[in-house]
Amino acid sequence: MNTLTQELVELLSLEKIEENLYRGISRNLVGKRVFGGQVLGQALRAASYTTDRPAHSLHAYFLYGGDVNAPILYEVDRLRDGKSFVSRQVRAIQHGRTIFTAMISFTHPEEGLNYQINEPEYPAPEQVKSEAELKKMLVEFVPENVRASFMRDRHIEIRPIDPSNPFQPQPEAPSYAHYLKTHDKITAEVDEISLHQAIAAFYSDFTLMTTALRPHGLSYLSPSLQCASIDHAMYFHKPFRADEWMLYDMDTTVSASSRGLNFGRMWQNGELVCSTSQEGLIRIREIETQ
C-alpha cells in the first residue's frame, strides 16, 4: 500500500488497552480539531472488535471538538448480544470527557426482500478530474497562509462530478456528488469487512454537511461561516470495497435555525451499499473589522 493508504489503515486500527477499551491515534486532517470522520471510523472499528458480525447501522453525536495532539480512548458498552442483532454503545473520551457517543448495531447478512432506487447517471470516474488536479487549477485563488494545507493530498482519492471554486462560491442546486476510494488496494493481512466499513464512515463525513451551503452561495471556506457536525447516521445495506470506486451522491432538504440537514447514498457496481444523513451547524457570524 502507498503511504497515504497505509496511514489511513493505521489511523483506523486501534490499540486494545483492556477488555472493551481501545485507543486511537489522532491526525491533523482538517485543522485544529479532529476530523469527524476519523472519530466515526475509529468508534465503528472499536465496536466491531467486540463482535464477529458486520455493522448495519450507526447513530452518532459529536459533543465536543477533539484535540489533534492527543489520542482518543474508545469505551465500548456491550448492550445486547441477540440471535439477530448485536448492539453496542461507544464513548470517545479525550482529556477526561466524552467528546462523541454512538450507538451501533451489527447483524449477519440474510436473504429477504430486495428493492433499491435507480442509481443516478453521472460520467464514469475515469471521465472526471481528480481533486488533486482540480486543486492545481485553483492555486491562484488560494491565500498563501492556507495554501499548504489546501494543497495537501487527502488519505482517499476524490473525483468530484461537478466541481466548483470554494474561494468564489455561487448559489447552486442543493446537491453534490463525487467518486471515492483509497489510493491503493487494501492488503490481504488487514482486509476485513470492519475496516472497509470504517473507511466508508471516515470518508462519509467529507463534504456531506457542506451540501446545505450550496443554495446559499457559501462554502466551507467562507469567512463569515461557523460549521460543525452535530450528528451522523449511517446504514450499511450490502457488502462493498472501500478500495474500489464508490459514487457518493448527496443532497440537502432544508436549512433552518442555523442548521442544515443532508442525506447521502453510496453506490458501487450499480448497488446502493450505504446511506447517510447528517445535521450540521451552519451559523453566520459577524466579521470583526479592524
TrEMBL record:
Source superkingdom: Bacteria
Cited CDD domains: Thioesterase_II_repeat1, Thioesterase_II_repeat2
Alphabetical keyword list: Hydrolase
Domain Acyl-CoA thioesterase 2 C-terminal: 147-281
Record-linked InterPro entries: Acyl-CoA_hotdog, Acyl_CoA_thio, HotDog_dom_sf, TesB_ACOT8-like_N, TesB_C
Acyl-CoA thioesterase-like N-terminal HotDog domain boundaries: 30-107
Presence of the UniProt keyword Transmembrane in the record: no
Family in the record: Belongs to the C/M/P thioester hydrolase family.
Protein's UniProt name: Acyl-CoA thioesterase
Lineage: Bacteria, Pseudomonadati, Pseudomonadota, Gammaproteobacteria, Moraxellales
